[in-house]
Amino acid sequence: MRDPAAGPSPLLDAIRIGFGFDSHRIEPGGIMHLGGLSIDCNAHFVGHSDADVLLHAITDALLSAANLPDIGQLFPNNLEENRGRDSAEMLSLAMDQVRETGWELVNLDCVVQLERPKLSPIKKELIERISSVLRTDFHRVSLKGKTGEGTGAIGRGELAEAHCVVLITKSPPLAAT
Ligand code: MG
Questions:
Q1: 136 CA to centre of ligand 1 in angstroms
Q2: pLDDT tens for each residue of 7-49
Q3: Which CATH number fits domain 16-170: 3.30.450.40, 3.30.1330.50, 3.40.50.10330, 1.20.58.480?
């Protein structure tokens, strides 16, 4: 049993969670950038960068967990250099910053709400791509696809939303108390 007089356990500063959310409008035509993949489904996300709604949610979750500036501060959408920018590159740079401040990813869990395309056929490929961008193991990334049940902006295929929670730990993880 830890002596309360010793103050807060160092373990309290060895783990952090972070939450990220993003949404993007969908318009017909073009290529959809999702999870670092380019999907030819006759629809695309609208945004200043490549509008990868899933990678944006993951990026913000990681940055938030490490108390770093958010994706909009790191990559402002009024800068020409960020127009059409590859979100996988942005996520990789964010992961670099998280690691530079002494943190390492434990795992992340995502939900994507999107009417089309169905994500189940490409779920493994998405997880492989995300774990590759993060330079982490496949088993540290979880992903679920949901539809809008045909209702609301998501159900009408006008909008996609992505949610992500991450757990990070100081490296080396969970140092002895
Ligand atoms: Mg975004």
A1: 23
A2: 878 788 899 999 999 999 999 999 999 999 999 999 999 998 8
A3: 3.30.1330.50
Q: Fill in the DSSP letter of residue 48.
A: S
Would you state the torsion angle of the CA atoms of residues 58, 100, 49, 158, taken in this order, to the nearest 10 degrees? Answer: 10
In whole angstroms, give the CA distance from residue 122 to residue 36: 12
- The domain ranges of the chain are 16-170
Cα gap 177→172, rounded to integer Å: 13
62 C-alpha vs ligand 1 centroid, how far in Å?
14
Using CA atoms in the order 139, 40, 159, 127, what is the torsion angle rounded to 10 degrees? 0
Taking the centre of ligand 1 as the mean of its atom positions, its distance from the CA of residue 22, in whole angstroms, is 5
How many angstroms does the Cα of residue 1 sit away from the middle of ligand 1? Answer: 46
Full-prediction pTM beyond 0.90? yes
Q: Find how far residue 17's CA is from the centre of its chain.
A: 13
> Any alpha helices (H) in 120-174, and if so which ranges?
123-134, 152-155
Neighbours of 174 (CB within 10 A): 13
CA of 137 to the centre of ligand 1 (A): 25
